[in-house]
Amino acid sequence: MSDEPMHRGDEEMDTPRRSRRRQHRNTSWDGMTLGLLAALCMSALTQPAAAQTSMPAAPPNAPQYLPKAWQSALTAPGPAGSGIIGVAPTIGANEQDLDAQGLNGTYQPGGAVATSSNAFFQSLGTNGRSCATCHQPAEALSVSLVNIQARYLLTGGKDPIFAPVDGANCPNQVPAANTSPSYLGKLLGRGHSMASAHSLVLTRGVFRIFLPVPANAEYTISVVSDPTTCNTDPAYNQVLDPATGTPTQMISVYRRPRISTNLKYVTTTIADVNPFVIPPNDPITGVPLAIDPYTGIPESGNIMWDGREPTLQSQAIDATLSHAQATAAPTAAQVAQMVAFENGIYSAQSYTFGAGSLTALGGLGGPVDLSTNAPGQLLSLAPAPHVAPYSAWSTITGNGYPSAQQESIYRGQQIFNTRTFTISGVAGLNNIAAIGNPTVNTCGVCHNQINIGNDAFPAAQHDIGVSGSFQAFGGVAPAKDLPIFQITCNAGASSVYAGTVLMVNDPGLALITGKCADIGRTTVPQLRGLASRAPYFHDGSAATLRDVVNFYNQRFSIGLSAQDTTDLVNFLNAL
User: Fold this and answer.
1) What pTM does this model have?
2) What pLDDT, on the 0 to 100 scale, is given for residue 569?
3) What single DSSP character describes residue 406?
4) Among 190, 91, 86, 171, which Cα is nearest to 127's?
5) What is the dihedral of CA 543, 544, 547, 551, to 10 degrees?
6) Could you count the other beta carbons within 10 Å of the beta carbon of residue 304?
7) CB atoms within 10 A of CB 253
8) SS (H, E, C) 82-129
9) Neighbours of 187 (CB within 10 A)
10) Which of 95-99, 380-384, 400-404 has the lowest mean pLDDT?
11) Is 477 helix (H, G, I), strand (E, B) or coil?
């Protein structure tokens, strides 16, 4: 599931480190063609278990956030029925799927996977979801807004991706007739319109992420506006301790599913590969990283938008419990199968309508070459630009197809890797002593993993100003269609650059660590497979990659010309 409904890819113990989150899992359609849309099949959905009054026991070693989030999930009603897009019987070893810009490539070095026998594609909870519900193989294992909207039209909002627990703005907004009684409390929806109940997932492609305010939080959160009602409805803005009745404040935020592909670049960092150059510590606090019990290397802190899940295994368990509303954790064998699938698949754009094949004339687009890149590699430790699959196109010139587009992609690559600008006020980056505030650098200072574009440092959550907390530095105001929170830091605590009282749509990492300095910080995402998974940013606020480039151009006063912007967009679409 993900952050990001069920999967790994929007928590850690009570340390200054980050935890990691998991993402949604669902039945997937294997592509965006009308022929596959025609494979729509309607099926009855198993109803949730009979209403209960007590919580099941949390799994051993669960992240701190999980017990309360799971309790809140089981208080949400289930769907009343399901119309599911039929999943392909096999995810091939090397597939090409149509997207808005051309073809997205999927590569599995270990060979094809049969979906019927793989836990990633199986419903393990009570609401019909699988991992693939929100992590579609054809869309770099995320899910595009076009995909979501088509599934809504084809099923009348009955596909499991629209489950009330987090596919709706709030479970209470779904009409009662479209819900089934919740496992805890036997609650039903109370809304009047399926379309309005699902407006955020249908316009932004975001899902509700519900998390408890940490017990050690050095701030208080008040709700300034709540168009979704989940932050003001007592059924969902708190959970009561089953033993004492003591309430814990729950915060609902809205995030895109991160991709669950190319994951070795997320779980392995430069601190694992070169610990004598970059020690395995949090780069800001210096706190040593915990050891991943499954791999034996330090945990990356980069799973989920807020880094709340320590391992992919933990994410698989926690997403199944919260986003699939399971009443028991998946088995060890099921978890291992989910993680093996995620670790064995690579995704990248392989063809664009303007440039043709991205492997032509020495180009290194597509997922096959991507899979050969080693994780934890930075420019300073490798003799290559950060993200440069199209260096062989440096001598291409011409006005016709495909040379003009290939030339533009190469120019965009050069802008990405060499155009410097002043970066300031970014919590999680500029307050790293070795970087400083301000710093003059390129896009690669954050998107520094060689040829992948995520951040190869551990605990890589940055606040670039998307969530509303950094208007003074060129960031945007809080969005009015999302909840707006006032976060007030306690005496002696402060955010890094925005003072002690902040207005935000999403507290980010601070909702896991309880630290004011972490307000608004989110994980630096991968840049591969971008064309297949719009919209962008954690809140879905950028509908297109041009919107992304325009945001950065304004936020950091880069000074891009119209041609520069087009070239950079073409390059990003070719990743």
Assistant:
1) 0.91
2) 98
3) H
4) 171
5) 80
6) 34
7) 29
8) EEEECCCCEECCEEEEECCCEEEEEECCCCCEEHHHCHHHCCCCCCCC
9) 20
10) 380-384
11) coil
